[in-house]
Amino acid sequence: MKQSMEKFNIDSSKEVIFENNDWVVFENGTPQISFPKYLYKYFSLNDFSLDSLENDYIFLSNPKDFNDPFDCNRNLITEKRKELKNWQYVERLNDISDVGISCFSENGMEPLLWGHYADSYHGFCLKFNVESLINGQNDSVKLKRVIYSLDPEAISQKHPFSDYYQYLLKLNNWQYEQEWRLLVKNPITSENRFYVDRNCIEEISVGYKHMENSIEQERGFNSTFDRIRKEKFKDVPLMIVGPHQTKLELKKVLLIEGNVEKGMEMLKHNFPFLI
Asked: Is 179 contained in some domain?
């Protein structure tokens, strides 16, 4: 049965129009884009990220583990507001177990994201084809753009958008992330994993520090990453991202298959001041 259209004013410039369990965000009267063609996800190089790469899934997080205590905060819902008298209980404001969240960005070349989420350029970044990423999913899965606001209003539980508002609203300070979120209901039923078709990964980028092997654990991670990529993503372009030689911006270079010596020679050629 078709639901009636509901509106909600997030702040003085943003409004949501909600209908049939979906919504459009308007900013100063202009609708935001429905979907980008590509999204990017940053990873540190560790056992967990390597397991997800090898076994074709994205981990779904509980917001209590996010680095922003205001993220998914229950105080955005009027009826759920609760004054806490001790900071050790802050995590209770965004401890949510019935929705799993995975975060993406529209930008695969953002220095702060490479620094924060790809372990200071030791990690990697995957480029996803959005249409393939969510193809065939049911209504329990939503891929939506994060809403950034300077002064967001709280919403009543009576409003149908309240089921999602808490998970998508972030303060304007985080706008540089250009974030989109995958929201999955009841993630525990899939062990907090969202399985994907590996063909939706169109590009793999590694940070310029990825080839550093100063400790045994790093060498092990790099070896596993290289094995997975060659076994499962041999035809996917492999890029390396690092500081431009003369400009204050990042540079992306296609890596050619070869041995470590050839890889280091290529690094010296493209990023000579870093070697």
From this structure: no
